[in-house]
């Protein structure tokens, strides 16, 4: 059994083990596991790239739900992906927007404010902020040009080696 076949079998066994372990706890098993977190951040970023302060008044703190890649998952190969594509896969953090009560750190021109924006007393206003929204498996196709170049190079080297072998065989010994 060659190394590739051995790896495929061990990979398959590992994925079956994960399915049994995690599948017994929930109905679905994710390729890129994620965790739900309730976060209390001091600030955030709007879709237009402006940094804002999130509402906080004594004990009253604004909290946002975020869906983050589980620890040790981000930028790692995806689970349950075919062995041929495994090294081309990667778990990536995805983002979305959440409506929040914010205060701009600098004066914001009206054209930068999002639709749905409105102000309340005290300099606070409602606007969207970027939040983590899940962990996604992305597969980057193999670079076909480099694979093609490698095949061409191997072919040229074989032809060159054959010619050298033929030249060596045709030369008389003892020149």
Automatic annotation (TrEMBL):
<feature type="region of interest" description="Disordered">
    <location>
        <begin position="141"/>
        <end position="175"/>
    </location>
</feature>
<feature type="compositionally biased region" description="Acidic residues">
    <location>
        <begin position="166"/>
        <end position="175"/>
    </location>
</feature>
<protein>
    <recommendedName>
        <fullName>Spaetzle domain-containing protein</fullName>
    </recommendedName>
</protein>
<dbReference type="InterPro" id="IPR029034">
    <property type="entry name" value="Cystine-knot_cytokine"/>
</dbReference>
<feature type="compositionally biased region" description="Basic residues">
    <location>
        <begin position="142"/>
        <end position="162"/>
    </location>
</feature>
């Amino acid at each position: 059994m060659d190394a590739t076949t051995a790896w495929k079998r061990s990979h398959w066994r590992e994925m079956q083990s994960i399915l049994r372990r995690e599948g017994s706890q929930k109905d679905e098993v994710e390729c890129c596991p994620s965790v739900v977190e309730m976060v209390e951040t001091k600030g955030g970023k709007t879709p237009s790239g402006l940094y804002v302060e999130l509402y906080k008044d004594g004990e009253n703190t604004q909290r946002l739900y975020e869906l983050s890649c589980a620890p040790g998952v981000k930028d790692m190969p995806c689970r349950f992906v075919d062995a041929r594509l495994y090294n081309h896969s990667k778990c990536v953090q995805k983002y979305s927007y959440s409506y929040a009560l914010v205060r701009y750190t600098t004066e914001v021109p009206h054209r930068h404010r999002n639709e749905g924006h409105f102000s309340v007393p005290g300099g606070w206003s409602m606007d969207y902020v970027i939040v983590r929204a899940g962990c996604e498996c992305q597969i980057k196709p193999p670079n076909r040009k480099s694979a093609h170049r490698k095949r061409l190079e191997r072919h040229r080297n074989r032809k060159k080696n054959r010619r050298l072998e033929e030249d060596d065989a045709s030369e008389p010994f003892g020149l």
